[in-house]
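Fold these two proteins, one after the other.
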Amino acid sequence: MRTSKQLLLAGLASSALTVSTGHAQELAQSSATSPTVAPDDTGAIVVTGSRIPRRELESAMPVTVMDFDEMAKLGRLNAYDALRLVPALSPGTGAYTSGRSDSQAGAAYLNLRNLGANRTLVLIDGQRQVSGTVTASQVDINMIPAGMIDRMEVVTGGAAAIYGADAVTGAVNIITKKDFQGFRITAQQGISQRGDAPETNISLLAGGKFADDRGSVTIGATYLKTGALLQSDRAFSRNHLSFWPNPANTGPRDGIPDNLSYNEFYLPYNSDVPALYIPNNDTFYTYFQGQLQPLLGKEKLSTGEFARVNGINNPDVIRSYQYYYPMRLGQRTIAGMANFSYDLADWVKFGARFSYGRTQPSGQISLYREDSRTLFAAPFGGAVARIDNPYMPESVRTLLTGFGLTRANISRYYENWPKIEVREDRQTLTTSQNLGGKISNSVSWQVYYQYGRTTQDMTVPNIPRTSRWVAARDVIADPVTGQPVCRDTAARAAGCVPYNLFTSDPMTQAQQDYILTTVRGRSEISQNLFGADLNGTLFQLPAGDVSFAAGVGRRTESATMTGDPQTLSGDARPGGFEGVVPSTNAQGSLGVTEAYGELVVPILRDRPFFRRLEVEGAYRYSDYRDLGDTHTWKAGAMWEPVEGLTIRGTRSRSVRVPNFGELFAPVNTGITGSISDPCLFVNYNATPTRAANCAASGAPTPLANYSDNVIVQSGGNPDLRPEVSNSYTFGTIIQPRFARDLSITVDYWNIEIKDVITTFPLLQMLNYCVDLPTTDNPFCPYVQRGPDGKVTFVSTQNVNAASLSVEGVDIGVNYRLPLGSGRLNFAFNGSYLIQRRIEAVPGEPASIIKYAGGYSDPRFRGYLLTSFDTERYTVSLGTQFISAAKVDPNVSEEFYDDNDIPAMVYNDVQVTRRFDNGLEIGLGIKNLLDTKPPYNPATLYGGGGRYDPIGRTFFARAGLNF
């Protein structure tokens, strides 16, 4: 068990989110053997954000510490699930944020300060790891077995001088267990009160010493299985919520909401049964169970084939298009890790680690659907039923002839087809070895090598082959037999199997064999790390030792993407899942050679108003094979004027180099569906410059309808430059003499990033083109409009364009006090966001987008862990607070009829009972009060990740130590 002194030091050094009261190994043991820093015989450990072992845990950079065992007791399943509670971290990629068509499903990436997972460096025991994807530089923390995690440390501010590129917003260091002795098994089972979203977690941990304690091995493994939760599984998300232009709106500042919220928002062409649009009377008709009837909205919001309605007269045949969207993906993960060390001699130690993880997500489900737009079965468009089709019901034929029509576009979900479900298989393997020892009593050395590889295999079954589907759906009566046959004689001769567009019967096996296929893809990224480090004491000053760390390293990475030949040829497009399987083949590599140095110099000690004054600095030189060289640095200071008060600050410059996907991703061309063009009638006067710029761009009058079939070009850019980040922190650590078990930290932080590598979403490209002072701007050249004023082409390739800035204040409070026969613990961590914004065109105020105060960036987030411990029991209550927010903080209050997101509070509770035989049993409830997400059309459910969609969940947890 950790000593009181160790726990107190942890509180002094950081905004400690939790304080350990469990059975974790000694803090010094669990962190002193970082692969890149040799242990220190004095028991000093390596604080995240530095490579110099310190006698104290105090750090010039703010560090948040989370004890994983405490979070596991509250039902948190893995590192990502626990770290979601840290206020400094925003939802990255994970089970709650992966969308329906997401090539990163099954992975878990961290997103510090909501500046992007690419800008958050994740370490394991202080060492970089191979990326979990070829398209970015992000570590998949799902591959870390939960049973091996001791604690997680989050450092704010640029850390590239210490760890290398990508740490522009900070770093997350996951410390694993080492020198464990014994055997431990832990199991947890949970389920929501509605009987869904099940959770199963089993962890094993074993270890011991051998060879007269010269060797040590610790092995851990975790099995995790969770069930998916779809939007159709909850009443609050089953009906699609949406904002839509208010017909009563007369213009800006008229006091009338520009957009109204609707809670039964439907797209009539998203029918589960055959639907045909008759332009003569602007009506959709559905054919279901032998009946043809008009599909009418209770409130018609727009007209035309792609109209929107609120409410529907026949909900049995139409549903929200987000019906199958996941609110939490399911997953099955197996992960294992082994840490090994052996004293080869008194002066040299060998260390090694092996880890393997495999994740298979579930919940990416869809049905094939199409309408008349060419993005379906491109370039042919959706199905067409001609009047000579023998499958056409007589009632439909009569309807068409009555309006003088000879054909009809069929819009529908093919609910009678086998479901499309993405099957992804992600695997990560890492091996590392190191030798380390002492050069002298004051200097340690280490050399290391690490290899990592991530593979991702993607399979999407039940995808129609375009050429065969186009032939199978166009049917005539055989001139000889009168039986339905494919119209195309060449396809008929090749074995074409005709398909009835009007049936709701399941596909026959012959139809499945002819029409459907399976699309596959694979990606792989590998990493090699070589390096050597020195650290120790250079000399002694009156105020203490001058400590240093220095090292050199070489890192190479290579990646490949392999698409399916059917996809590459365009004959099989994963309908609804185009973002999952690579659409082309690509490969590339990156390499960097680096050298770094770090120094800590004590200036004064035990002087009036200078109980301690210490400065530190670090510098790193990096030479990239294809990108040139970069220079990063850090400077910081710690000043303790009187006992119990420490003032600290840092200033740093960091870089992020473009990753494989940003550089080498092939340029792709696709077609999108309907888009809300800024020159649409409801958007035309949203900004002072928009009307004039729309006219200059080719839309002299407001557009009456959406732009459809827009060609979108996207992909990498080999000419990208590194991003540059400047950050600083300033704060204080308060440890009152009258309350030795109380520590308070307050830290201001500021991060600015220039030359931001970004892709600018399609709508932002369109908005920037017309919202800047003139159309002579960086965005309009990438937008093209047709003679009718509608958008026809947009390029969204990667560019160095924008600047990002974010600032805020973090607060940490830890307090422990005796109570009866036990101890009461309070650990609070909060973060207040002062601002976060992106400036698309640096120096142009009109291009600024504000995020602070929006639902993706609430002003304040806090987490309080309250626990009471006795020898036999632990009772814990975890409380998460999310402040009120806006749907969009950039618009006026009249833009939406409801622009407000209420504040939310979530509570988790657990009770643990310990027995003499090593058995530990716990019962708990997550989301104790069954708090539901805010009911708002904003993206709060599928892909949101900020609010809990599952509701009250019960879990039981049991552990046994041998």
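Now the second one:
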Amino acid sequence: METQSTARASAVMAAGTLVSRVLGFVRTSLLAVAIGANTTMGDIFEKANTIPNIIYLLLAGGVFNVVLVPQIIKASKNNDDGGADYISRLLSLTLLVLAAITLVVTALAGPIIRLLTRDWTQGMLELGTIFALWCLPQIFFYGLYAVVGQVLNAKSRFGWYMWAPVVNNVVAIGVLVLYIVLFGSFSRATDSPEAWTSEQTLLLAGGTTLGIILQALVLLWPLSRLGLGLKLKFGWRGIGLGRAGKVAGWTLGTMVVGNSAYLLYGTIASSATAGRQEVEGSGAGVAGEYALNTATLIAMLPHSVVVLSIATVLFNQLSRSQAHRQLDEVRQTVNSGLRTIGVATMFGAAVMVVLAGPLARLFAGSGPTAPASAAAMGQLLAVLGAAMPFMSIYFFLGRVFYAEEDAKTPLVMQSILSGTCVVIALVMAQLMPATEIVFGLAVLFAVFHILSALLAHFFTVRRVGDYGAGQVAESYIRIGYAALGASLAGAAALWLFGGYQPGGFAMVSIFTAIVTIAVCGIVMALAYLLLLKALRVAELHDFLQPILSRLPGRG
């Protein structure tokens, strides 16, 4: 029964994440149409709109996402009120902390923009600050969404947390459609801060923040349906937050290290925005921060849809097994989880590498410079996509330590990895031209993911013993053969669509890119499934079971 329940929960969460991601891609594509891809305005808005999420994660995100679930589960089981008092006080504390953080950070919008950019002109800095003033209040609502979502997850109400971002994306899509109707699509003539208007800022930045607000508020309804009678409560002594605070401290350290490094990478990438203006022509072939973040978003789709959904559900199982010191069950969960997610991540990597160009074309905007922008973004996507399975392994193995309420080990791992990469990134920033720095960062990220998986494996074996890593590696090798065969089939189909020729059908427009992706994707999927069957990859059944179990007559 537990396996079936896990399968159903994973399927519901994966469906919600998939819908949200698809809508998110539509939003990102429309944003490129509205303000361009490798453009000054695109990079300025990307910087301002990315900072709130990173600062939230930097200061509190990890605490909410991985520390609170075990604490809420314990409070729910050990207290007669089902954890109502604990959750009420937790929510009250969260709202106060988030409000204070948001007010302080928003007041420092100007200095923050200056600190996190390189070689920007005064006009770029001023517009970036205005965008930030509209976007930074998102920090409060990111936090509210996260903590309420974790309460729902701890109560096994998994679907709402994954489906709420759909609301955000629908609002954002509506805002961007209205923007294009009122102000038109991107034009090189308006690609400067001096040509930007207050009305454009209000609609673009204000509408984006409105979507984040509604994403958080929609979770308040299912929270009220839990029947806990939650209300504001102050006074946090003696309710068990001490233990959570110790774990949260280590987790916060991990997030500070990781996201501080990410802020540095973004600062280095911002130099491409200024460097692009020194290039003859449009400079559309120079990838900037928008291109790097968008390529990362695309490359992470298999992880976001499959790995995150499975890991969120299995995290509860790991927490229960760790609480009872059932290490055999922990090892089995890790083993089966890694092998199952490999079916999705290895195929995802193959798709990202083979179809990098057409995928990037979806988010390169319109106009004569779009193919050049897509080519630059496609290079980033191919590099990042090839390494994403390793990032998923690292993420999943990290859950082993958080389930045990050990946040110190992830901090050690993150410090080793981020410290090394930061040093390399700083050296790259001094040696590489600004027009090439973003591609260098993409290669660095790919290497980072590979090393992170190896490091997480080492620490996991030290903690729980051999979880059958040899069996996992063997599964990935067999799955890899299937992914390679699918890649060859997809590459052949892409060649027929002119994907390797300048001006070929695959890259002419967003529509032709969609057609190419659809046909080549189907060819790759069929080839992959046939090869998995031929190679007798048992993990295919484990991966498909949550989907098949929800079909009529297959309950």
